[in-house]
TrEMBL record:
Stretches assigned to coiled coil: none
Name of protein: Site-specific integrase
UniProt entry tagged with the keyword DNA-binding: yes
Pfam families: Phage_int_SAM_5, Phage_integrase
Entry keyword Endoplasmic reticulum: no
PROSITE patterns, sorted: TYR_RECOMBINASE
Keywords in alphabetical order: DNA recombination, DNA-binding
Similarity comment: Belongs to the 'phage' integrase family.
């Protein structure tokens, strides 16, 4: 056992009442490193009182207040040992979290959501943290559909054992009745499933109450139809007139993404001048960087068009980011908001251009990536080339990616196979 838990009297500093604080002492030895932590128990005793109540083995004669204090100390020590023994590997940080929470927190859904949100925020995964927040709000509304204020207070009392397969099916029905898509329901229920898994991994709840199984509740899956512009539509959009600076900027950055192998707008915002070497730039895709052990750099060769975008919109100070979307002084949270706002601006104005030119009205920044993929295949690029360009982990991912495109794109691709 790598830890020792005990109750001690901290006599380093006498308090004004002439007593000393009683503390929980946790000694931990891990990886040849010794750690000792003392936690206040909000009980003060003199040396003699501590000797009588805790140290003296003849404590059976304790009465009144002294007996109550001993029982409290026994409770502190027992609970601390129980929390420590429940860990597969003792970790003092996790022990602190578990020991100082309310006993009801183990089975509390919001408590575990808050832990996940805090963890993702501290790891700079702002988008994931936001997704957990949206899920929690959705669950709160479902709990009390008629009173939003009451819902926020009731979510504090939601427990894991309340969420059964039938509960989830009712939640799904409620979401559909509000016009929510199966995609949205899938995102929220996956987040809830992750919270269940976290609580089970922490030994806070039993796997017996896990509702996400084949014979209980299955998270709905929807086939995502990936929209893309064909060659004619791309030519129309590229030649379309912009009525103001915002529209011109939206069109320029949309095509910068398209011409850079469908580069994500977050990656565009975080592109630095130091990433550019001669006729190309190299970057790591932010979306998948933390999900893979092997980090693969993506290389994009510059063209006259992409060079012109950098020249027109690039910062004059070449020591920081290429584009004036974020800056190095921003916090991660501020960067997240700025990138989100910039993407929204591009989406709003590219839609306006599309509407005036009889192009699909639901065009967005995602269409640039999808359009790059389908048009590369239409022009005869191999699936392997597109897979590498999109930075997919393997060829099967690319095949599934292409499987999600609309039927028209598949037909065009099929018909082009014999165009030697």
């Amino acid at each position: 056992m790598s830890y020792i838990i005990s109750i001690v009297l901290d006599t380093r500093r006498e308090k004004e009442n002439g007593k000393f604080p009683v503390k929980l002492r946790v000694y931990n030895k891990a990886n040849n490193k010794k750690t000792v932590k003392l936690y206040s128990l909000d009980i003060d005793l003199t040396d003699k009182e501590f000797e009588t109540i805790w140290i003296n083995p003849e404590n059976k004669s304790l009465r009144g207040a002294n007996k109550k204090i001993r029982l409290r100390l026994l409770e502190f020590e027992t609970r601390a040992n129980d929390e420590a023994e429940a860990m597969t590997v003792f970790d003092i940080a996790k022990f602190e979290t578990k020991y100082f929470r309310k006993s009801s927190d183990k089975n509390n859904v919001k408590y575990h959501f808050d832990l996940a949100i805090q963890k993702n925020m501290s790891n700079d995964k702002i988008g994931t943290a936001e997704s957990y927040k949206y899920t929690l709000n959705s669950l709160a509304v479902f709990i009390d559909k008629d009173n939003a204020k009451e819902a926020l207070s009731k979510i504090d009392k939601l427990t894991f054992d309340t969420i059964t397969a039938d509960w989830l099916k009712e939640y799904e029905k409620s979401m559909l009745a509000k016009g929510r898509s199966y995609t949205t329901i899938g995102i929220y229920t996956k987040a809830l499933r992750a919270i269940f898994n976290n609580a089970i991994e922490a030994n806070d709840i039993s796997i017996d109450i896990y509702p996400f199984t084949k014979n209980k509740y299955r998270i709905p899956k929807s086939k995502k139809v990936k929209k893309a512009l064909n060659a004619k539509q791309l030519k129309t959009l590229f030649g379309a007139d912009a009525e103001n600076e915002n529209e011109q900027q939206a069109k320029d950055f949309w095509f910068f993404s398209y011409a850079s192998n469908g580069m994500n707008f977050k990656d565009i915002a975080l592109l630095k001048y130091s990433d550019i070497k001669e006729d190309k730039f190299t970057y790591y895709r932010a979306k998948t960087f933390d999900k893979t052990a092997e980090k693969t750099a993506i290389t994009i060769y510059l063209t006259d068009f992409t060079n012109s975008i950098i020249s027109n919109y690039g910062n004059k100070d070449k020591s920081d980011f290429v584009f004036n979307i974020v800056n190095s002084k921003d916090t991660i949270q501020t960067q997240y908001k700025k990138i989100k706002n910039f993407t929204r601006l591009v989406n709003d104005h590219i839609k306006r251009i599309a509407k005036r030119n009889d192009l699909p009205n639901d065009i967005s920044t995602y269409w640039a990536r999808h359009s790059f993929a389908t048009n590369s295949l239409r022009k005869g690029a191999s699936m392997e080339f597109v897979s590498e360009a999109l930075n997919h982990s393997d060829l099967n991912v690319t095949k599934n990616y292409f499987a999600g495109f609309e039927d028209e794109a598949k037909k065009e691709f099929a018909n082009s196979l014999l165009d030697f």
